[in-house]
Amino acid sequence: xxxxxxxxxxxxxxxxxxxxxxxxxxxxxxxxxxxxxxxxxxxxxxxxxxxxxxxxxxxxxxxxxxx
Length: 67
Fold this sequence. Notes:
Elements: H1 12-25, E1 30-35, E2 38-42, H2 46-66
Antiparallel strand pairs: 1-2
């Protein structure tokens, strides 16, 4: 049985596109981490934006699924 391939890191372009999209919704957002699971952001007011963060993460996942 073949081993599944390792997850790949997002490209610089994907990181920039994700940051641009999130910045339009949440000005002041910062990239917290980048890894095989995607880009994780830090929001200016984390408590107030958790629901929004989940929506953004879902939007990014949906775009990835289309690619």
